[in-house]
């Protein structure tokens, strides 16, 4: 979808779609799970825990970082990452708001 078409949607919908895209790959979900389980910045060991190449993990981390769900620093050959809990909470709240909005239209009987 072109940028001009995207701008015709509300900012809330654009943000929700952006966050949803960040969570749309199982590797990115697994990376977030690993970061949450460690409860600290994770350096390098993510590659050892996933059945993916270093370059693939790096690309997913880059996507998560650009999307704002992960914070990280790269120092030479070492990279350290952690979850941006504020951004993840924002996504959670946005998704719940959207779900509740949809629920308003739910009928007792299903049409299909």
The CATH topology comes to Arc Repressor Mutant, subunit A
Rg from alpha-carbon coordinates: 17 Å
Element order: H for helix, E for strand: HHHEHHEEH
CATH class identity: Mainly Alpha
Class per helix and strand makeup:
alpha+beta
Low-confidence stretches: none
The main β sheet shows up as: 3 strands, antiparallel
Task: Report the mean per-residue pLDDT as an integer.
Answer: 86
| Distance, first to last CA | 29 Å
- The total beta strand count reads 3
The backbone outline, from C-alpha atoms, is elongated
CATH superfamily: Winged helix-like DNA-binding domain superfamily/Winged helix DNA-binding domain
Corresponding CATH architecture: Orthogonal Bundle
Biggest sheet, spatial arrangement of strands: 1-3-2
Total domain modules: 1
Q: Please count the helical segments.
A: 6
Approximate helicity band = 55-70%
Strand content: 5-15%
Task: Describe this structure as you would to a colleague.
- Pfam families: HTH_5 (PF01022).
- Keywords: DNA-binding, Transcription, Transcription regulation.
- This is DNA-binding helix-turn-helix protein.
- There is one protein chain.
- The chain is of the alpha+beta class and about 110 residues long.
- It has a single domain, classed as Winged helix-like DNA-binding domain superfamily/Winged helix DNA-binding domain (Arc Repressor Mutant, subunit A), CATH 1.10.10.
- Helix content is about 60%, strand content about 10%.
- α2 crosses α6.
- The chain is elongated and about 55 Å long.
- The two termini are about 30 Å apart.
